[in-house]
TrEMBL record:
GO MF annotations, alphabetized: magnesium ion binding; phosphatase activity
InterPro entries: HAD-like_sf, HAD-SF_hydro_IIB, HAD_sf
Domain of life: Bacteria
Organism: Marihabitans asiaticum
Name used for this protein in its record: Cof subfamily protein (Haloacid dehalogenase superfamily)/HAD superfamily hydrolase (TIGR01484 family)
């Protein structure tokens, strides 16, 4: 690690593969480091591909004053009150066009949508994780017009992960932002301009914090915009090769409390 000698005013970190261990747990060492960060007056924000519904179990990580930027930046989530307080969603017309084109050009593609109220999914959608009990199901995701999607999800069991992500990116073009967070072959699509970097920049602007005063941690390609925006960026040792190459610094892996080690070093200054 060769971090900036200046203390940040805000630390932004990805969750899965970065702050969390491979089994999804948070170590006591990490929780202690984050609490010490708050005690030192340094803001913390979770910036994650996870939907809001997957943040509640991690409330102890950031404490009651925490904010999470979820869905790759589509949702702002108040951890204490367990509510979405801002969102940037996909226009319904764009969603209809994108799903139609993907179905036509990549037959067998199934869709789901993360919305303010929770997950909605087509009955054929090949889920990676267990569905929530309050799952809304439909034959065609675009027919659910009662609530807009913050993140559109797509999978295709007939193509390899690499093939599907490459082809899907070509099909959707710039109509949506297609990101990859490491979840097996899952294409994660947001409205134009919605990235982790944009969400973090907007949040920092409201706090009157410059990019130069932000440290960011990540592991996957969807973290790259955030890492490139922040004044100092760290790739965990287990990160995707592209992230390791482009980040300013590297720390130990997620199973070795890499983020916590950097924060402990920071707090000793």
């Amino acid at each position: 690690m060769d971090a900036s000698s200046t203390r940040p005013r805000l630390v932004a970190t990805d969750l899965d593969g970065t702050l969390l261990r491979s089994d999804g747990s948070v170590s006591d060492r990490t929780v202690t480091a984050l609490r010490a960060l708050a005690g030192a007056g340094i803001e913390t924000v979770l910036v994650t591909a996870r939907p809001p519904r997957w943040i509640d179990e991690l409330a102890h990580v950031v404490g009651t004053r925490g904010v999470a930027l979820c869905g790759n930046g589509a949702f702002r989530y108040d951890v204490e009150r367990r509510r979405v307080f801002a969102e940037r969603t996909i226009e319904p017309g764009v969603m209809r066009q994108v799903t139609a084109d993907l179905r036509e050009q990549l037959p067998g593609t199934g869709f789901a949508a993360e919305r303010r109220s929770g997950l909605a999914a087509e009955r054929m959608f090949a889920a990676i994780h267990d569905h929530p009990e309050d799952l809304v199901t439909t034959d065609r995701i675009e027919d659910l017009d009662d609530e807009r999607a913050g993140k559109l999800l797509a999978r295709n069991p007939h193509l390899t992960d690499e093939e599907f992500l490459r082809c899907a990116t070509e099909v959707v073009g710039e109509r949506v932002v297609l990101a990859y967070s490491g979840a097996g072959g899952l294409a994660e699509m947001s409205a134009p301009g919605v990235t982790k970097a944009a969400a973090l920049a907007d949040w920092c602007a409201e706090l009157d914090i410059d990019a130069a005063d932000v440290w960011a941690f990540g592991d996957m390609p969807n973290d790259l915009p955030m890492l490139q925006w922040a004044g100092s960026s760290f790739a965990v040792a287990n990160a995707h090769p592209d992230v390791i190459e482009l980040a300013d610094d590297q720390c130990r892996g997620n199973d070795d409390d890499g983020v916590a080690r950097v924060l402990e070093s920071l707090l000793k200054r």
